[in-house]
Amino acid sequence: MAARVGTNYKSYLFHLENNFLSYETSLMMFPPPIRQFFIIHSLVRKMGNIVYSIIWLLILFFISFFVAGFCAGFYIIVHPLSVCLPPLTSLAELLLQGVQFPHYCADKMMSGAPLG
Known about the structure:
Helix content is 80%, strand content 0%. It has 7 helices and no strands. By secondary structure, it is an all-alpha fold. Helix 5 packs antiparallel against helix 6. The model has no long low-confidence stretch (mean pLDDT 79). The protein has 2 domains: 2-46, no CATH class; 50-111. The chain crosses the membrane at residues 50-78. Keywords: Membrane, Transmembrane, Transmembrane helix.
């Protein structure tokens, strides 16, 4: 059965894209060793680079919490004033991004995304 589709990775992806099969059901056409290769390969492909994850973790702990704490204090003051003074709206949005910086770092850490 595997001979019809081919056992190499490119022919499998071509078959998967052209027949719109789900990943789990299409793996059943391969023998168990090849099936495990595809499962492991897909897990590794979903994981990001571990080095970038460690860098993002360091940024999260040593930089982002301090930035968020600094911005939160000013955001509490500036945000209500932005209703009275519309030019402060852009400053309030910038401070809000600073408050959300730990979330951004944690998201990048989990995906293993490169810096930049």
